[in-house]
Amino acid sequence: MSMTETILVVNAGSSSLKFELFRVGSQDSLARAIKGRVDGIPNRPHLSIRDASGVVVDEHLAAGSVPDLPAALALARGRVVEWLDGAAPVAIGHRVVHGGPDYSAPVLVDDIVLAKLQRYVPLAPLHQPNNLAPIRAVWAHDPALPQVACFDTAFHRGRSELADRFALPERLYEEGVRRYGFHGLSYEYIAGRMAEIAPELADRRLIVAHLGSGASLCAMRERRSVESSMGFTALDGIPMGTRPGQLDPGVVLYLIAEKGLDVGEVQRLLYQECGLKGLSGISNDVRELLASSDPRASRAIEIFVYRTALMAGALTAALGGLDAFVFTAGIGENAPEVRTRIGRYLAWFGLELDPAANDANATRISRPSSPVGCFVVPTDEELMIGRHTLEVLRRQPAHARG
Fold first, then answer.
1. Which of 19, 54, 132, 222 has the smallest number of Cβ neighbours within 10 A?
2. Where are the beta strands (DSSP E) in 30-187?
């Protein structure tokens, strides 16, 4: 095996593309070589790349010069190849939000896989098209380059049927209308990290709160998903930056029948205008809301906290008790005030936060006497994608170990 092998990881959003390059080391370990992103697509594109020593590129690009995600990926790949002195990655790993009922593990993408993933666009209309666009772009220019799809839903696919079913007719379940769960790449990474941080708790009853612009909670036992807050789509569960979380289906019927909204208008409302943004009328950014003196900002944060705590209670019931609670993602990792407020609600099952450790964003933020351990663990979805991509690549005959 060549020590120069690299894996490129791509995580595409609606107006941005994050990418990371990993070097493959001994025992197929991965070391992050560079980390970059293209933001502001298409009107104000900006490219930034960092390596271990700091900033490599920080460049504002001409308006319209990066019109879409395929163009952003072409730009990123070009700069990566330059950085590698003309070498190219041996494979590209992609985050794909929805794997539907078909995929319970990462998979090498081919025509059949891509066609199936396209069918799930209605289940993740803001994510899935953006996830698939870079895959098609690479195929158009380099069809022989292996590409691996890594799914946010896969981690939850082995759950009990009790957790997967809605109270709907059987025919809809067979068609794929079921509770999938999301943020699985993050949860899988956290499960592995907990085995390193607190091995005495890693296989016990855990709730992980992935709190970011998108937010959800997952109940785990023996490092496997038991239950989660998100269901059929990434709209479900707790309030998010611009998504409402759990919603009475009658609200959607009301919006259509009484307010005259069509499907597209309802979709825009639920994905882009609700959550913290809709509650506050100010912002979907928790940092701005915490700094604001506007009572609407405080109300939005408190509703977010309250709903998160309610969901934690439901997941504790699914586990039959709780041994550890883990905060991760942007809000979970960086907002001590939010963690404090959630902790107050969770004191009923014995959680005792250590204020000093919490304010310092320490790894363990519960008191030594707390019956329930509480942790702050930074997530790393890109590393998880890189690992899965290499595993899939190694299973292909042309890339077997020599």
1. 54
2. 30-39, 46-51, 54-60, 91-96, 107-108, 147-151
Cα(72)–Cα(65) distance, integer angstroms: 9
Contact (CB, 8 A) for 245 and 255: no
Q: Give the number of other CB atoms < 10 A from CB of residue 14.
A: 12
What Cα–Cα distance (Å) separates residue 298 from each residue in 41, 279, 282, 283, 305?
32, 10, 11, 12, 11
pLDDT tens for each residue of 291-344: 999 999 999 999 999 999 999 999 999 999 999 999 999 999 999 999 999 999
H or E element that contains 335:
none
Residues 6+ apart with CB under 8 A from 27: none
With H, G, I as helix, E, B as strand and everything else as coil, classify residue 101: coil
The number of angstroms, rounded, from the C-alpha of 253 to the middle of its chain's C-alpha atoms is: 29
pLDDT tens digits for range 183-215? 999 999 999 999 999 999 999 999 999 999 999
Q: Is the dihedral of CA 17, 89, 128, 380 positive or negative?
A: negative
**Whole-angstrom Cα distance, residue 332 to residue 328?**
4
C-alpha–C-alpha distance, residues 245 and 140, integer Å: 37
Looking at 152, 164, 236, 380, which residue is catalytic?
A: 152
Q: pTM, whole model, 2 decimals? A: 0.92
Do residues 57 and 79 lie in contact, with contact meaning Cβ atoms separated by under 8 Å?
A: yes
Confidence at residue 65, expressed as pLDDT on a 0 to 100 scale = 86
Q: Which two tokens stand for residue 333?
A: 């990792």
